[in-house]
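Hypothesis: this fold can be encoded by more than one sequence.
Test: take the structure tokens below, design a sequence, compare later.
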């Protein structure tokens, strides 16, 4: 199967031979949580729906890589209203809808219409590509694939200008695997591809702050060499490795407007 490739100017990954598109961290219901804290922002569900519809021609499968819902524990009224409608719309445009459980997806089966594929938190395999949200250990079968695609960290890159001002924007990261540090799996992927959060209201965690840490067990024991991670902006520009891009973590960071918001 072909190498999973980011779709330029979208926060989505394409698996061409499988006629599939993959997104993660939709966090439907986030706006309800923000509203309870006095922050009023419009729901992003319809915008995410429109983007995935726009990507559907010529594609048959959509993979939602965890954290489809937001509230944990429990669920919000927004989630009960919006998630089933969202999935039904996707089912009209894609033959297959896959949902991988994330750490926010408690009782997610209660929200999903019939004929939705629900996969465990340990992930699933499509050809030689493994998919996992990233908050738990992937299964041995998932880890035996050539590529591993994961979400969970909402990666952004912090960019420092000549005046010392720091801003951030969403990014993709491709990590090499250090098989020497592995004492858990018989076989390991060649590369881990970390995808940005699909919900643009989430912001994100800068992956290149000095002293920063990645979330998830794969980053806990040196199995992934974080400093060698290759960082790409959403328009495909390669910035360098995380080690090349390290910035101090003691300054305020602002979020840049997305380089080219695609709202169809």
């Amino acid at each position: 199967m072909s190498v999973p490739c980011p779709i330029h100017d979208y926060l989505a990954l394409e698996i061409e031979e499988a006629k599939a598109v993959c997104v993660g961290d939709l966090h439907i219901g986030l706006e309800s949580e923000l509203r309870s804290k006095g922050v009023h922002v419009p729901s992003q569900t319809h915008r995410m729906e429109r983007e995935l519809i726009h990507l559907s021609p010529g594609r048959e499968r959509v993979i939602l890589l965890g954290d489809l819902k937001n509230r944990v524990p429990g669920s919000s009224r927004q989630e009960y209203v919006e998630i089933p409608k969202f999935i039904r719309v996707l089912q009209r445009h894609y033959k297959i809808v896959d949902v991988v459980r994330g750490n926010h997806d408690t009782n997610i089966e209660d929200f999903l219409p019939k004929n939705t594929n629900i996969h465990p938190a340990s992930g699933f395999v499509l050809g030689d590509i493994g998919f996992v949200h990233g908050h738990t250990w992937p299964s041995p079968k998932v880890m035996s694939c050539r590529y591993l695609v994961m979400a969970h960290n909402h990666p952004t890159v912090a960019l420092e200008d000549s005046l010392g001002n720091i801003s951030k924007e969403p990014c993709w990261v491709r990590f090499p695997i250090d098989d020497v540090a592995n004492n858990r799996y018989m076989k390991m992927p060649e590369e881990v591809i970390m995808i940005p959060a699909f919900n643009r209201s989430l912001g994100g965690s800068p992956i290149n702050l000095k002293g920063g840490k990645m979330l998830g067990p794969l980053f806990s024991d040196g199995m992934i060499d974080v400093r060698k991670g290759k960082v790409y902006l959403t328009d495909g520009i390669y910035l360098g490795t995380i080690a090349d891009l390290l910035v101090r973590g003691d300054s305020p960071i602002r979020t840049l407007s997305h380089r080219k918001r695609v709202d169809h």
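The longest strand covers residues 166-176. The chain has one domain: 5-255.
Hypothesis status: open.
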